Amino acid sequence: MARLSPAGTTAGGVGTVRGSRGAVPVGRAAIGPAGGADAQARAANRTAWLLVAPAVAVLLAMTIFPAGYLLYASFRSFNLMNPDAGRFVGLQNYQNIASNADIRQSLLITLLFVVLAVGIEVVLGLGLAVILAKQSRENSIAATILILPMAVTPVVSALVWRELFNPNYGWVDYYLQKFGLIDVPIDWLGSSTTAWITLISLDVWQWTPFVALILMAGIQGVPREPKEAAAVDGAEGWRLFWDIVLPLLRPFLAIAVLLRVLEAFKTFGTIKVLTGGGPGISTEIVNLTIYRTALQDFSVGAAAALGISFLVFLSIAVPQLLKVLARNTDLVEG
Amino acid sequence: MRGSPREPPHLSSERQTLARFVQILSLDTTKFDFYDDNLLRGEARRRGTGGPPSDDAIKGVPAMGYRDDRLVAILADGARRQLSRRGLLRTAAATAVAVPALAGMKGRRAAAAPARQDAAKPTSIKMLYATVEADVEAIKLMIPDFKAATGIDIELDSQPYDALQQRAFAELASESPFYDVMICDTPWTPALTGKLEPLSTYLTNPALNDIADLALEDFIPKVFYDTAVYNASAPNLQFPAQEAVDLAAIAAEGFDVFGLPLQSNALTLAYRKDLFENPAEMEAFKTQYGRDLAAPDTWDQFLEVAKFFTRPDQRLYGTTLMAGNGDWATDDFKTLLAAWGGNGYMIGDEFTIDFNGPEGIAALTYYADLINTHKVTPPGVTSFSWDTASSTFASGLTAMSMNYHSEVLNPGVEGEIAYALVPQQVTRGPHFGTWMLSVNKFGENKEWAYRTAAWFTSAASQIKMLQTQLHPSRASVYEAAKTDPGALAFGNFYEVLGQSLAVGVGRPRLTNYGAVDKEIWVAVNQAASGSKTPEEALAEAAEKVTALLKQEGYPVG
Question: Which residues of chain A does B173 touch, with a Cβ-Cβ cutoff of 8 Å?
């Protein structure tokens, strides 16, 4: 295996590679007598490079080059319809972003959306997971039904939501009025607070089951012995859950939160369909801004700079989040 | 489709790579429009259409041809220019072949150029079109007739609005010859003049006007100039005079024609005729307001009528508005701005910001008050698009509705619809914007593409298209609509549409109109939803629009 590795990167898995100075010395030792060994090692390396070449080519073409081009474009004033007028503008696009209050607000509300939506999903998902963790026929049926919202395309769910929250015909206002909770219909998408409630409720409906299923698997995997030992010591109910089950669930919580946070930052279709960023720009998350800039205004340079800025923002925010979440777990090293 | 042998041979340059990227994305984003109920609304409206027009109605179109002697001079000049261009292209091609080492990529482009001039009849013409907004059913209706007349198939590719814009821009930016004929919306054209084929030499060449009666003077002048006449080197300029279509004047001013108008949209006021003519309602209104109940002619009357019909307990409101985030909110606002005596274009010829003055504030205050003070609109109006406004009116929830098209009530709603011009205040200035069929500058069948555009926009074609709710661009078609059974199925809609176009106000010509438009609709939406006062919202929008104009390199006045 080591002989096939061009630079030790694939040899024997991560643990094996660590501390090695590369594949060639290992290869030499494995091949045996000196003399022809160098030539054989070189031939082996060539074979190795040939074998990984397609993967490297795909990586270069599909990831490295576009990322590099994105960076290049972000330093240019570049409109798709007038590319000949494109010119190097240095950090101008980034300065525009930094000085644009709307974009700063856009980044802030994106963060707020992610924190609120994922926070609610984790709390509700944990509650659901506790209820469904007991293995019974009813629970397995319920767990199956739980998967359904995840299977709905986000755009379709947003269209359904739009009708459900329609103040003139929607079920939500109808039943709120029927049960006497409100006197006049609420225009859900008409004010920024209610628009956010609508958007977050959709995200929570769609993705709480995802969190619940992960945590349910976690709860079912908690070993019986610590729970029994705690019970012998007198712990029960809430105390047992808080001190024994929850700490053991921490890796599962971290996985659920990580996956949801990454997905939530990518949210686009539901918000585009449901509010289009409105009212005003109160729900215009950064993905919508990038979309408008790149695909409606065709300002490729500005959109590239915004994309890069968002990437940097995520690169700083997500590892910090992971550090907090994954303390005492194996998810993050160090 | 992408693997067609007519794909552009040169996709390696920066702009083409990017454009392809946008094309790929546009395929993906199509889904957002696809699931939008715009399509369903379009279908629903079409279900209410009448039968085909009689042959007599088609025969009734006045035959129109060239009547202006000045055109003869242009014709000769056009022929000279074309010959000269051909000569140049041949030279370029010969050079490219003789010096292949120097020609490189450019040589390939130059060598390909003469083929584009080849007028050989193609077996098919590829047309990019809008699914709902420009009435694709009208095109579908005429395709068999076009085939019968020319023997050419139309390969029609229709897209919802957002996807259409992305496709059109990406195709043109990549200089792709894939589409021969493309539908263009007015807000796009300032950015596209360098990519669309100028048509003056085609319009004046009798050999290219052999399958349709061009009758340029039949186009409604305001529609023709606003939609198709641009100065390619300064696309922000409006053509100064718009009394009659005059190719000589267009050429003399340094302008050209970049397409032929087809779907003329203007805001009209639809109202429930059954309610307005109900004796009990008429009596009650007269008692309350001391005048007869009628379609409002002024915005003051509009408010009275809207108040009168607002009865939430009966699930009836005065009017819809298009106050949600989108171009439609800007169109509502600019209509009121013009009515209050402001510049309905919103941006002046010298790039002055004309929408946040006293007229703009008064207009937006009136608009926001309809929603927040007088509450004559149904709940949810601040997230209405043109489409939701239409479906709300169709469901019988309002007595009036302003929109770009005719309306059809839902089957469960018993009633009748009539139309009126949108009201006036100081003056009248309904928003209007027209689509046009343009020839792809990089296409391989440009002459036949032009013939196709001319045929589909001819009076005879447009009259037949009336049955599918086409909004005509020609005066003679509005005349024909008075007796055409297909048009009469929509009551007095065509009569009102024609009158609206005559007094309509178009959009400013900005290459970044999309971004400017967004800042204005955000202001309208903020004022409508009460999150900002009209003054604050417009002042903020003015500041942002000023920055956008400067970024685009316009000398802001």
Answer: 80-81, 83, 298
